[in-house]
Amino acid sequence: MSQETGINIGSSIKDTIIAGLLALIVFGPVVGVLLDGYEFIARIDDVVWIVAIVMAGRFAISVFVQTESGKKFVYRQLTKEDGVSVTAPDYKSKMRYIIPIVIVIGLIAPFIASKYVLTVVILGLIYVLLGLGLNIVVGLAGLLDLGFVGFYAIGAYGLALGYEYLGLGFWSMLPLAAIMAGVAGAVLGFPVLRMHGDYLAIVTLGFGEIIRLVLTNWTEFTHGPNGVSAPLPTLFGLEFKRRSSDGTPFHEFFGLSYDSAFKYIFIYLVLFLVVLAVLYVKHRLTRMPIGRAWEALREDEIACRSLGLNHVLVKLSAFTLGASTGGIAGVFFATYQGFVNPSSFTFFESALILAIVVLGGMGSTLGVVIAAFVLTVAPEMLREFADYRVLMFGILMVVMMIWKPRGLVRVTRKGFATRKGVMK
Amino acid sequence: MSQENILEIENLVMHFGGIKALNDVTFDIKRGSVSALIGPNGAGKTTVFNCLTGFYKATGGGIMLNAGDKPTSVIKVLGEKFKGSDLVSPAAFFERVKYKMFGGSHLVNRAGLARTFQNIRLFKEMSVVENLLVAQHMIVNRSMLAGILNTESYKKTEEEALQRAFYWLEVVHLTEFANRLAGELSYGQQRRLEIARAMCTNPEIICLDEPAAGLNPSETEALASMIRVLRDEHNTTVLLIEHDMGMVMNISDYIVVLDHGEVIAKGGPEDIKSNPKVIAAYLGAEEGEDVTL
């Protein structure tokens, strides 16, 4: 870092001119020349605008990095910090201002947003749930799980098959699917959690594939690749269909004209509340004995055992809770799609969820929320590049691992005020 | 069961494949004593420790831990092989099944034996206080519902756990580092924190594996006085492995000397100092040669 203070305007202007020239070279032929048959039209004004924006931006950045706060910012970005830091005991996160605003926006949004935007956001929220579930397993407890999609599938098929065979609706399946996925996690976990790292990853990978193959091949029960339809949620028994088989549908009850967006608004609101609840529970868990035990287990299993922690049960609790969160996400996925088939639960999904956790920062809740939206909403926005989606995804991962190997959001640990020590 | 001895090791045998790491090791540790396990490199000291604390399953012999309300057989809680007699005694059979499924070294700690490690094993990316809170896992309120709802009783046990953590931080002089990451501490501080963490599990006996390794003379002196505090103020029995003979002779009431997996001498510091077998083991004397310190 240079020691000189003050702002060197001269060098900023030099940077600006270089950036402007580069912008001219790049955008000049691309934007400035419009082919029109065998002729071309020069569009100088567009080029001038773009170059002006680039130059202004470069100048602003150049001046900013020379100011005190800018220097600090650059220093923070350049120094490779470990990523984990302990906050002061009286530290109050800025999140307490941001969270109420986000909640209000989140509750108003469905009534303003278009149906398409709503469906994309629902998908984003489903991945937030999946990310949070896997974050417990991978981020907190340090157990590499490559078959997380198995629990997601159990939740989704739980709703679809529970409706078909037992007539259970969305609301009864929501807790049931969480329990089913949790039980599946525990049954899978108990024998395999004595393994470490790579072995566990392979076993879970196998589990995810087994679930998918069972769903594909057990055609009498699951209808195989043809899939099963899943029911919509109901509001106190009011259905969101155009015509209800029994009772009045939602729109007739309230005297509204039918709109297919109603069901998405409802799914969105329920999902939003569930995500908030899961976020709160996750926040509490990390400050509770069980959450501390998970993280301790990730740090050093042998030390944990020497302190009287039953490592198998601690791992099992992480696996079960993570799995049940995945199951809840599955129920929402099924009801949102209205239909499930095994092709939604491939290994690529597991990899995507794992990418969300890694990208967001192992153990970081905020990071997972951001990463989930980035990785699900971005492909929707970049529909034109659909063919290159996986390629871009790969490039993003490589860049992230080089630039910020510990994830987007730095993990902070809560500090404790010093108090008088008392024995017993 | 003898109340006088907190730890009774009988004919302990440990084989790794064809290598006989321990041959018939027998010694007792008196309640409230500071005992040391010494011996040349490769004598099997750490192997004894790992057997005691349940990290190795001993090939043969018995380890009885007379702590808490009832004696605990360390070998048994790790999960033994089934025996013919299990066929006639279902109770013994189910106990064995229980320990096979849920047994392990954590039960040794719960029975009242804590340990530290030769190569420090702290939770490096957790804060110093959190390291001590994890150690109190079995004491605090682990109810998931109480924790999520943040009930009064939950807050109370958490506060008690924090106070206990800060108490031990004061004992090991680390209060000012309470909110630092454990991995950021210096080597000596990490050693002290590991002892504090082990003590947070409320053990009756603590096993320290080379606590003075890598410490300078003044730190070693501070460690010795800390070990005396553990014994005198907290009624904790201390068993340690150490190479620093000055410190061992200074603080130990009882010394066990191991060589090639066998106990070659046991007794007070004075006896050990003048024991020709010990001197021979350390200095490598010829058979029959007389050596004095």
Explain what this protein looks like in three dimensions.
The complex is a heterodimer of chains A (424) and B (293). The longest helix of chain A is centred in the last third of the chain and has 27 residues, at 311-337. In chain A, a hairpin with a 2-residue loop joins strand 1 and strand 2. Chain A has two domains: 9-78, no CATH class; 91-412, no CATH class. Chain A has helices at 9-32, 44-64, 68-78, 95-112, 115-140, 149-166, 170-192, 197-217, 219-222, 250-253, 261-286, 289-299, 301-306, 311-337, 347-360, 365-381, 389-403, and strands spanning 33-36, 39-42, 85-86, 228-229, 339-340, 412-413. Chain A is mainly alpha-helical and 424 residues long. The mean pLDDT of chain A is 84. In chain A, 67% of the residues lie in helices and 4% in strands. In chain B, the strands form two sheets. Chain B has a six-stranded mixed beta sheet, with helices on both faces. Chain B has a four-stranded antiparallel beta sheet with strand order 2-1-4-5. The two termini of chain B are 39 Å apart. In chain B, helix 5 (128-135) runs parallel beside helix 8 (187-199) and helix 7 (152-171) crosses helix 8. Chain B is globular and about 60 Å long. Chain B folds into two domains: 1-112 and 203-293, Rossmann fold (3-Layer(aba) Sandwich); 123-201, no CATH class. Chain B has helices spanning 45-52, 74-77, 90-102, 105-110, 128-135, 144-149, 152-171, 187-199, 217-234, 245-251, 269-273, 276-283, and strands spanning 5-16, 19-30, 34-38, 60-65, 72-73, 113-115, 205-209, 237-241, 254-259, 262-267. The model of chain B has no long low-confidence stretch (mean pLDDT 86). Chain B contains twelve helices and ten strands. In chain B, 40% of the residues lie in helices and 21% in strands. Chain B is an alpha/beta fold and 293 residues long. Chain B: InterPro entries: AAA+_ATPase, ABC_AA/LPS_Transport, ABC_transporter-like_ATP-bd, ABC_transporter-like_CS, BCA_ABC_TP_C, P-loop_NTPase. Chain B: It comes from Marinomonas gallaica. Chain B: GO terms for molecular function: ATP binding; ATP hydrolysis activity; L-isoleucine transmembrane transporter activity; L-phenylalanine transmembrane transporter activity; L-valine transmembrane transporter activity.
